[in-house]
Amino acid sequence: MDDRVRNPRSKRWLFALLALLVTLGVVFVAGMWFADRGERTVAAVTESYAAAYEGIDTTKDAPGLLPLYAPDAVLHDAATGRTHTGTGEIEAGLNALLATPDFDLTIERIRVGDDWALVYWTADGMRPDLNRVTQVVGVTSLEIEEGQITRETWYYDPAKAPF
């Protein structure tokens, strides 16, 4: 048999294997891109959240935070049991927090997951009932979908809170 004559099946097999490898590669790269994009979105929202709180001027309202929330977002204060639903109620809740005399919030650290983040913080402020500045350590849980906060929950000791 002539060496120049090749089996057509071997070419089909090689082509099928190559096509499979290329397909798997594309699926893998696309999956990594979408996963990475999702993490950046959660991280970006969380970084904006932290920056807004650290740069907050307590003599003003909370407009820097509001664009981070979905229109039907929920803010729950687990320490007091209060829940604010929708950006209107959330704005009122944030304005009440920011009305605390000498309020200052420091972000200690942040942990980010696929669709959630934990923000660890320390807050200081004047407690008029005690006539002194108090400090509380807490954590905020954020649930994030499509680049917006859908649920926020505050955890802290209300007996120590300045607000």
**Which bin fits the share of residues in helices?**
25-40%
Mean pLDDT: 84
Q: CATH topology, anyone?
A: Nuclear Transport Factor 2, Chain: A
Fraction of residues in β-strands: 25-35%
User: Going across the major beta sheet, what is the strand order?
Assistant: 2-1-6-5-4-3
How many β-strand runs? 6
Low-confidence runs: none
Give the class-level CATH name: Alpha Beta
Tell the overall outline.
Answer: elongated
* Biggest pleated-sheet summary: 6 strands, mixed
What is the H/E order? HEEHEEEE
Distance between the termini: 92 Å
Number of helices: 2
Computed structural class: alpha+beta
Which radius of gyration do the C-alpha atoms yield? Answer: 26 Å
Question: How many separate structural domains?
Answer: 1
- Any idea what the CATH architecture is? Roll
